[in-house]
Design brief:
The structure holds two protein chains of two kinds.
Chain A: E1 5-15, E2 22-33, E3 38-42, H1 49-57, E4 64-69, E5 72-73, E6 81-84, H2 96-100, H3 102-107, H4 111-124, H5 140-153, E7 158-162, H6 170-187, E8 190-195, H7 198-204, E9 207-211, E10 218-223, H8 233-236, H9 240-258
Parallel strand pairs in A: 3-8, 3-9, 6-7, 7-8
Antiparallel strand pairs in A: 1-2, 1-4, 4-5, 9-10
Helix pairs in contact in A: 4-5, 7-9
Chain B: H1 3-15, H2 17-43, H3 54-64, H4 71-75, H5 82-114, H6 116-131, H7 138-145, H8 149-173, H9 177-185, H10 190-228, H11 233-242, H12 246-278
The chains are: A alpha/beta, B mainly alpha.
Chain lengths: ~260, ~290
């Protein structure tokens, strides 16, 4: 069966915003994410992770290589790829419910059906009772739950997540990681998750793509076969299978960081 | 407990202590001025040709409305209702200019805010236009449009459009890019992005722009009516002054200020607060 998300020979250059110098962000990247697989992309900062996500999301045009979702070449943004951004990207002038239903609203889904769907995802992400609140009344973790529900509600083929838990505190992050795992089980979504946090990648990923430092190349792919229902921090923290995978990824990432030198 | 104390507590409960204090403090200068006015009338330090008594200012309304056939006549701007005609004439001009100027200013502001090139093309022109106060256009406007409504509307539009344009532009620019990206990845069109991201995001700034443009516009209008008008409160003041009817001048000035205060306090300030507070969009120095 063909993979849901296929990237072939993707190379990307862009001129630096300030100096105008050519930045070689991605070099001949090829990867595949099969149906229902949770793929984590790990790499040192500045390895082109975010560039990759922006290209996949259609926010950045690409010239060299191919990006296919369900076998179709994609250019430009579309509802087939849902994105959860790193920053708080939910609209402050929309209530929780209206943020979550935004994608359906854009698609022209009738109000009653929309309400039903929104209620379903409000429950899934554990935001019951907060439907009419505005984002400024929510904590950082809750905002990311809204963001996640909004993306899920449009039922994308592939979900792209750009370090969604980077801005929340450590305790909340652990909770959100477990919740995301639960949601991944419930929705069986195909997910590409970008992070610089090795623990997070090993905890969530079925498959981890490790990137080199710039220009970003795929350095290694680590498969993690721990069943999803066993992925609870309390159990995994001392699980040798998990720690072995984590250390393997950590070593691969640290090789990249150490070759950076002192600059 | 005395009745006065009880009353004071009741009033404080009704309005809130902080707010009451603010209202009272704000009223002190007005009360002082009114008292000085009263003293002047009583003692005639300055004769009535300079400072007319309040009673004759009040009477001026009825003198101006002498030939008015009642409420309906005033509303339909019958020729006898001189005072209300001037008021409606000024208000009508402001209303018409807002009706044209606001949508145009907002539309251009949103487009320029979203597009660097258009902004770069329009910004210098806007700064150029803003540097010339509305009134400086007046001689030219009179040459182009003659005395009357067209000239005053031109002056008003010139003030309203650029202020709303700039405030909208700044408001749109302050909207984080990630909002646009998130709506686009939800499948949103350019129009969705405009109506659901940039317009609401810029709304607090747009409302500030409306507030400013109405303040400046109202001032510009009065000045324009003095020189380039054939009716309106500014025109009324100017004609009355040339006829030495000081009480009509006083009346005109008071009404101009009261209309502005009323609009600002009852409509614009609440609107501004509502958009900012509801969305938690508080401007922080960054």
């Amino acid at each position: 069966m063909q993979a849901k998300l296929v990237v072939q020979g993707l190379t990307h250059h862009y001129p630096d915003e300030y100096t105008g110098e050519d930045v070689h962000a991605l070099d001949n990247v090829s990867l595949e994410v099969e149906d229902g697989i949770f793929a984590a992309v790990v790499g040192p900062s500045g390895c082109g992770k975010t560039t990759l996500l922006n290209i996949l999301a259609g926010l950045l045009p690409y010239r060299e290589g191919h990006v296919k979702v369900d076998g179709v070449d994609v250019h430009g943004p579309g509802p087939d790829r849902g994105v959860v951004f790193q920053e708080h990207a939910i609209l402050p002038w929309r209530s929780v419910a209206r943020n979550i239903g935004h994608g359906l609203e854009i698609q022209g889904v009738p109000a009653d059906e929309r309400q039903r769907k929104v209620a379903e995802f409000v429950e899934l992400v554990g935001l019951g009772g907060f439907e009419d609140r505005y984002p400024h009344e929510l904590s950082g973790g809750m905002k990311q739950r809204v963001s996640l529900a909004r993306t899920l509600c449009s039922n994308p083929i592939v979900m792209l997540m750009d370090e969604p838990f980077a801005a929340v505190d450590a305790q909340t992050r652990i909770t959100l990681q477990e919740e995301l795992n639960r949601i991944a089980i419930a929705t069986r979504k195909t997910i590409l998750f970008i992070t610089h946090n090795v623990d997070e990648a090993a905890f969530l990923g079925d498959k981890c793509f490790i990137f080199t430092r710039r220009p970003g190349k795929l350095k290694a792919t680590v498969k993690i076969n721990i069943p999803r229902d066993r992925r609870i921090w309390k159990d995994l923290i001392n699980d040798s299978e998990f720690t072995n995978h984590r250390d393997e990824i950590l070593t691969l990432v640290r090789e990249e960081v150490s070759t950076l030198g002192d600059d | 407990m005395s009745t006065i104390q009880e009353l004071s507590i009741a009033v404080q409960r009704r309005f809130g202590r902080q707010r009451l204090r603010r209202i009272i403090l704000g009223a002190i200068p007005f009360v002082t001025l009114a008292f000085l006015w009263y003293l002047n009338t009583a003692n005639e330090w300055l004769p009535p040709v300079y400072i007319p008594p309040f009673a004759s200012v009040w009477e001026a309304i009825f003198l101006l409305e002498e030939e008015c056939m009642g409420f309906m006549d005033a509303l339909t701007m019958g020729s006898g209702c001189m005072f209300t005609n001037h008021v409606f004439s000024s208000l009508g001009r402001v209303g018409l200019s807002l009706l044209i100027g606001l949508p145009l200013g907002i539309a251009f502001g949103v487009v320029a805010g979203m597009n660097r090139r258009i902004a770069n093309a329009l910004e210098p022109l806007g700064i150029f236009a803003n540097s010339i106060s509305g009134i400086a256009w007046l001689p030219l406007a009179i040459v182009w449009f003659g005395i009357g409504t067209a000239t005053t509307i031109f002056i008003l539009l010139n003030t309203i459009f650029w202020l709303v344009f700039f405030n909208t532009l700044l408001g749109v620019r302050s909207v984080p890019r990630v909002y646009e990206n998130s709506v686009r990845t939800l499948g949103g069109s350019r129009w969705n992005v405009i109506t659901q991201v940039y317009f609401p995001g810029a709304l607090p700034s747009i409302v500030t722009g409306i507030r400013m443009s109405m303040g400046f516009g109202w001032r510009a209008l009065i000045a324009a009516e003095m020189i380039g008008g054939d009716s309106g409160l500014g025109f009324m003041i100017f004609v009355s002054a040339s006829e030495y009817k000081v009480e009509e001048v006083f009346l005109g000035v008071l009404v101009i200020a009261l209309i502005w205060m009323f609009t600002d306090r009852t409509m614009l300030v609440p609107l501004e607060k509502w958009t900012i507070q509801r969305w938690g969009l508080v401007w922080r120095p960054s």
